Structure prediction request, 160 residues.
Amino acid sequence: MGFPPIILAMAIAAALGAGLEKSVLAIALVWWPFYARVVRSLVISVKTNEYVLASHAVGSTQRRILTRTVLPNCLAPAIVMATLDLGNAILTFAGLSFLGLGAVPPLPEWGTMVAQGIRVFDQWWVSTFPGLAILSVVMAFNFLGDGLRDVLDPRLRRSV
Prediction:
């Protein structure tokens, strides 16, 4: 977690070689520690709540406590984090494809399209519109994550 995710993803993708599946694997290998850390801290904080202790007191099994009590309360922050990070993953994947470490050129991918548009600089639209598509999708996922955070976080709800 000490390296920037894009640099670590570039190193892993370069070691694995170019390709769509290998780039997705590199991004997944870079991002899973962040999710593991957040989910672990959520589980640790939720398992000390009174409703979990009450469920344990009435004789629920550990598996039932985990699936019915702990995980539903940890799921909302993890979903919000995933939607917010999806924009970063798209940017990282486009960056890998721009550098030639992502999708192979017959596959249509925005990073590859931007890289091909640089070769024909006098035709500005070749790289501008894929860049605008990346921008709009990343912004859409950021707005979606922000909206989900507002909906799923009970501390942000207004009292009526």
Q: What stands out?
A: The radius of gyration is 21 Å. Residues 149 and 155 are 10 Å apart (CA to CA).
